[in-house]
Amino acid sequence: MTLKQLLIKHRDYILTQWVTRLKSEVGENYSKRPITELHRTTEEAFRANHDALVNNDLSSINSFIEKIGKLRLQSGFSLSEVQKAFELYRSIILPILFDEIKKSNLYEIIDKLNKHLSYTIHSFSDYYQSLSENKIRNYAKKLEVKIKERTKELAESEEKYRKLVEEINDGYFITDKEIIFANKTFCKMHGYTKNQILGKGYLSLVADESRSEIEEILNNLLENTLNDKETFIYLRKHKNGKLLPTETKIKLINYQGKKVIGGICRDITERVENEKRIRDSERLAYIGQLTSCLAHELKNPLSSVKMNIQILLQTLKLEGYNKRRLEIIADEVLRLEKILYEILDFAKPINLSLTLVDINELIKTSVEFLDIKFKEKNIKSKIILAKNIPKILLDPDKIEQAILNVLLNSIDALYNDGEIKILTKKDKNFAIIQISDNGHGLEEQDLPHIFEPFFTKKRKGTGLGLTNVKKILEAHGGQVQAFSKNKGLEIKLFLPIRR
Fold it and tell me: Based on the domain organization, do 398 and 458 belong to the same domain?
């Protein structure tokens, strides 16, 4: 089969494919054109290609290039879109050539097709560029007049823009590896004055663990191997050494005649903490459900064991170590029962019964309640209570439970003759209860886990005491913090002052 015969035979298929792929593959401009128009255009292009490939007549394709060039420029098509449209002809016809043409003739026809399309695309590109340049020149002449009129307006606009950038709550910066411009918020976020931050390497404001990743992003954007915009989350480095979570969006911009990176950064510390709280709540809910089921299954058998041991102690006339063995079993059952109630307490949702309470009186009551335990280990208690704390709306039973849990932890951590300090103070809208001891304390790596359920360093304990403290404080809208000291541990309970 000759090329002419092939084109005649497959004409309808080629035109249908061409129109379909123009609508779906080339770009938004083509997808918006009416089908009837695309049919007319492809038919004309098909005839022009036929004349060039079969009759070696380039006049039709040259006329088509001139016509389509003007039309596409007026409609706002990009050069690459029209080039792709021409290229579709080759991608549609090649599979047909391989199926229909003998191998002996295939190379010659494909070579002819490639040369023809190369000529077509280059001719169109040159013509389209010349049309674009003429259009730009004409447009430039009109712009010259407008530019003179707008110069004053632009100067005023730039001043307004600078003021706007300075006043926004997010940090704005421009960098080409070093900080070229930074607004007040950006400087404040990093703890520097404007004079200190200008000229500073941008990567020096990034935490070590985030630096290599951010450096790669900046390099890729400057070298145009990334998308126009890039958003990333990293740890920024404050002047005081603190590492704070930050979200930044950067873009390649022109600034004073060169390509640089402009960016907006936002402190997301609160968002990260909220997300962590949500994750912790979900995890605790799951653990609570699991432990509640387990505790209920153990409660009845344990009660039965406890009751029968008590009956045996009363009825059997045991003496010596046999009696002691049974007493040890009874004590251990009581300890298990206590652990079981702690687990059930942890699993229960907190329902608050709020009333106005004097927290200083609550602390005095809690210390008196544990007086025997203080005396057993000869522990001294030093209590300093602030007088300026008003009565606070809270659940007294729950807060007393939280205070007792912290005090019991301190008592367990102390050796004989130790000391526990309890003080209260008012800080803005919070009442603070501070409980510290001079016991064995915690290792630094253990401190972040102290409020996690079932984390404990004690030989006997469930690890739920401080978890319940955290749960109670958060239910009141407060929080709890732990600090390791040279000797001992300090726990702070923050309660919002609400009337």
Answer: yes
d(C-alpha 171, C-alpha 189), whole Å: 7
Question: Is 330 part of a structural domain of the chain?
Answer: yes
* 394 CB neighbour count, 10 Å cutoff: 28
pLDDT at 313: 76
The reply to whether 155 falls in a domain is no
Last residue of a domain, one of 315, 347, 379: 347
- Under the banding of pLDDT at 50, 70 and 90, the label for residue 99 is confident
Give per-residue burial for 263-301: e unless 16+ CB within 10 Å, then b: bbbbbbeeeeeeeeeeeeeeebeebbeebeeebeeeeee
- Specify whether 43 is located in the same domain as 122: yes
Can you give the residue range of the structural domain that contains 391?
A: 355-496
The CATH number that applies at residue 429 is 3.30.565.10
pTM above the 0.70 mark? no
